[in-house]
């Protein structure tokens, strides 16, 4: 940091004309943190050789190898830390998370729209659920084979711990699809906003966990809002209501099993969900054949194509692709954000789905029904804050 030193006498007090410069931008400094000292800006490590200095620049150059001088400007310095560009990195991380959230919500809205269109024309939720899982599994297998994505390194223990997660995921996925085949998309998601109440109940009864009082109090608006929305629903259907409730319970168990089973596993969120989809596909396929069967599917498919036309095939493909994509992005988001941020994002996602479905499908809704939905979603948001 010293530009030039011109000694004019043999004593230390004769050293003058020290030009000090400050770098424009510090990216990394091996020096310790510099404090704001007002004095002694010059540090000399070997002063014993200064007496032999001459005014000759050539001699000065020769003498430089005989001693080391370290100096810095302290009167305007600030503590220097390694990684001073962290604010820029944090800004980039926020942008990345924002993109994840926007993509997650958009894909989820598109999936729910096409899923409801398919179920209106083809009321076979078991096959619809199976196609969603099959499409996602095929997409990931192709990406691994073509090396677009790196295949996960798994072992037998990984698949053992994944099995209960897949069972819960399969039940939750099918139950939610059954619910949407019977009631409006908005009603299904209003009921599914009550998932925190199931989470607290299951954690308390099966895991023995206790929660602070604000968490329990936050369940009151959730339960009350869901009850108000259900009572005032114009097209209430018990199968649709129970499907949403079962889906809530199943997804709570899925989250619990995921936390327990994935500790210490080094599988990314994208690959983890891919493996989950494949195992869920193996589980749901025999049940789908037993409950509905190829004969019902063939008759229903012909009827849907005759009524809707070729667009029906596109609807099926779209709902299957977007189902996998939105779930994949949500699992990728979990790798980047905290559970609190994820829960807030999940609440906002549900609001966007409810509003979009009401607008697109022209779902009739009473003011008191909308009030119940708002109370339930607000309670979900309060729960996410209180739980953390």
TrEMBL record:
A Pfam family it matches: TPT
Membrane protein topology class: Multi-pass membrane protein
Residue ranges constituting the Sugar phosphate transporter domain according to the UniProt record: 96-384
Domain of life: Eukaryota
Organism of derivation: Brassica carinata
Any one cellular-component term (Gene Ontology): chloroplast membrane
Bilayer-spanning residue ranges: 97-114, 126-145, 213-232, 238-257, 269-289
InterPro entries: EmrE-like, Sugar_P_trans_dom, Tpt_PEP_transl, TPT_transporter
GO molecular function per UniProt: organophosphate ester transmembrane transporter activity; phosphoglycerate transmembrane transporter activity
Protein name: Sugar phosphate transporter domain-containing protein
Protein's UniProt keywords contain Plastid: yes
Swiss-Prot/TrEMBL keywords: Chloroplast, Membrane, Plastid, Transit peptide, Transmembrane, Transmembrane helix, Transport
Compartment(s) where it occurs, according to its Swiss-Prot or TrEMBL record: Plastid, Chloroplast membrane
Principal subcellular localisation of the protein: plastid
């Amino acid at each position: 940091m010293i530009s030039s030193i011109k000694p004019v006498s043999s004593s230390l007090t004769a050293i003058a004309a020290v030009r000090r410069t400050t770098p424009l931008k510090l990216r990394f400094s091996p020096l310790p943190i510099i404090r704001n000292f007002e004095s002694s800006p010059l540090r000399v490590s070997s002063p014993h050789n200064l007496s032999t200095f001459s005014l000759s620049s050539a001699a000065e150059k020769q003498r430089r190898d005989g001693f080391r001088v370290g100096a810095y400007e302290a009167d305007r310095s600030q503590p220097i830390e390694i990684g001073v560009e962290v604010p820029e990195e944090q800004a980039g991380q926020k942008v990345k998370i924002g993109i994840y959230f926007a993509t997650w919500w958009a894909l989820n809205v598109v999936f729910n729209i096409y899923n409801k269109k398919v179920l209106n024309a083809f009321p076979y939720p078991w096959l619809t659920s199976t196609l969603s899982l099959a499409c996602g599994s095929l997409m990931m297998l192709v990406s691994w084979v073509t090396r677009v994505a790196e295949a996960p390194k798994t072992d037998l223990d990984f698949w053992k711990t994944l099995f209960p997660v897949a069972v819960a995921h399969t039940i939750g996925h099918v139950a939610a699809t059954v619910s949407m085949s019977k009631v409006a998309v908005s009603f299904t998601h209003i009921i599914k906003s009550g998932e925190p109440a199931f989470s607290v109940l299951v954690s308390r009864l099966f895991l023995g966990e206790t929660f602070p009082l604000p968490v329990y109090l936050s369940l009151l608006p959730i339960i009350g809002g869901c009850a108000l929305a259900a009572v005032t629903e114009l097209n209430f259907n018990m199968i649709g209501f129970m499907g949403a409730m079962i889906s809530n319970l199943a997804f709570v168990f899925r989250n619990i099993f995921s936390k327990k089973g994935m500790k210490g596993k080094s599988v990314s969120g994208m690959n983890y969900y891919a493996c989950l989809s494949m195992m869920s596909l193996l589980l749901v396929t025999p049940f789908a054949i037993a409950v509905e069967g190829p004969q019902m599917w063939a008759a229903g498919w012909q009827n849907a194509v005759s009524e809707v036309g070729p667009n029906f095939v596109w609807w099926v493909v779209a709902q299957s692709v977007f189902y996998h994509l939105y779930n994949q992005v949500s699992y990728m988001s979990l790798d980047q954000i905290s559970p609190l941020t994820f829960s807030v994002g999940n609440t906002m996602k549900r609001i966007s789905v409810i509003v979009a479905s009401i607008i697109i499908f022209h779902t009739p809704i009473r003011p008191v029904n909308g009030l119940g939905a708002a109370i339930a979603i607000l309670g979900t948001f309060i729960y996410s804050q209180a739980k953390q």
